[in-house]
Amino acid sequence: MQASPEDTLFVFARPTLGSRMPVALLRKKVRDLPLEFRLDDSMAMSEAAKLSGSPRVIVTARITKSGMAKAQSGDWQVVSKPVALGATGIALEINEAIP
User: Fold this and answer.
1) 93 near 80, Cβ under 8 Å?
2) pLDDT average, residue stretch 12-37
3) CB count in 10 Å sphere of residue 24
4) Which residue from 84, 20, 91 is spatially nearest to 52, judged by alpha carbons?
5) How far apart are CA 48 and CA 23, in angstroms?
6) How many other C-beta atoms lie within 10 A of the C-beta of residue 50?
7) Residue 23 near residue 40, CB atoms below 8 Å
8) How, if at all, do strands 24-29 and 96-97 pair?
9) Which residue has the higher pLDDT, 38 or 75?
10) Is the pTM of this model over 0.85?
11) CB-side exposure of 55: number of CA atoms within 13 Å?
């Protein structure tokens, strides 16, 4: 993977059931890696859909040159298996190219 320190890193969580819209979002730069983070309601995408309302979530980390949150060809990402809300020690390795 060819990533620049200025490329954008998105880490987001979406519920395992119901809407596929993210309920929490963190935006950083590749230069911030490795990154320890905690997704919580302060990162909610809307007041109506908070992370605390989802008992299990799927966490995605994506690196993009465009700076746009929507996946595009050339981005790199990793998608976790479902994890329980409040889980700790989740390690994500961004290693999947988006065609």
Assistant:
1) no
2) 92
3) 24
4) 84
5) 9
6) 16
7) no
8) unpaired
9) 75
10) yes
11) 1
